[in-house]
């Protein structure tokens, strides 16, 4: 499982290091490849290839003309690109994905169980602020209660 928040930088060529703890999980449970795509939030999602393929398989079973499915495919699947780690543990983030998430210098990696999020530092700060405001919502409390059920 991916967990933790890590601050890094992205260089002028669009390369950023995958934090060591996340890299250990990736290589230990999967391989050295990530599928990176735009998220519905202003960040990127990075999936191990096996997890991404499971998502694609589940989507393939759905009616592609169903409005939610078509939108998800256009926004999430169409922009997905494979980004393997280089020998130094870095990923090259394609320009279109960097532009979407506004990744310029300081970035934040956030482990989210089976997916990793990649944010601009400013975007992450805003997402954290928003999450804290929603933390007492009925939806969050319901989910938390369901997780504690035997």
3D architecture notes:
The structure is a single chain. With 150 residues, this protein is an alpha+beta fold. Helices cover 43% and strands 29% of the residues. Strand 7 and strand 8 form a beta hairpin. The radius of gyration is 16 Å and the shape is globular.
Cα-atom radius of gyration: 16 Å
Strand runs, count:
8
Helix-and-strand structural type: alpha+beta
The DSSP helix count reads 6
Report how far apart the termini are. Answer: 21 Å
Write down the secondary-structure element order.
EEHEEHHEEHEEHH
Q: What overall geometry do the principal axes of the alpha carbons give? A: globular
Largest sheet: 6 strands, antiparallel
Overall mean confidence score, pLDDT: 93
Trace the largest sheet across and list its strands: 1-7-8-4-3-5
The proportion of residues forming helix, as a percent range, comes to 40-55%
* Proportion in β-strands: 25-35%
Point out poorly predicted stretches. none
């Amino acid at each position: 499982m991916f967990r933790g928040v890590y601050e890094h930088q992205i260089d002028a060529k669009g390369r950023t290091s995958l934090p060591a703890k996340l890299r250990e999980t990736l290589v230990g449970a999967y391989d050295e490849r990530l599928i990176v795509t735009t998220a519905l939030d202003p960040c990127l999602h990075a999936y191990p290839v096996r997890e991404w393929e499971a998502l694609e398989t589940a989507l393939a079973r759905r009616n592609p003309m169903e409005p939610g499915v078509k939108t998800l495919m256009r926004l999430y699947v169409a922009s997905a690109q494979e980004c393997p780690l280089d020998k130094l543990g870095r990923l090259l983030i394609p320009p279109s994905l960097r532009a979407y998430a506004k990744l310029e210098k300081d970035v934040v990696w956030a482990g989210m169980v089976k997916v990793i999020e990649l944010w601009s530092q400013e975007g992450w700060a805003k997402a954290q602020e928003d999450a804290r405001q929603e933390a007492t919502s009925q939806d969050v409390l319901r989910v938390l209660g369901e997780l504690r059920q035997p």
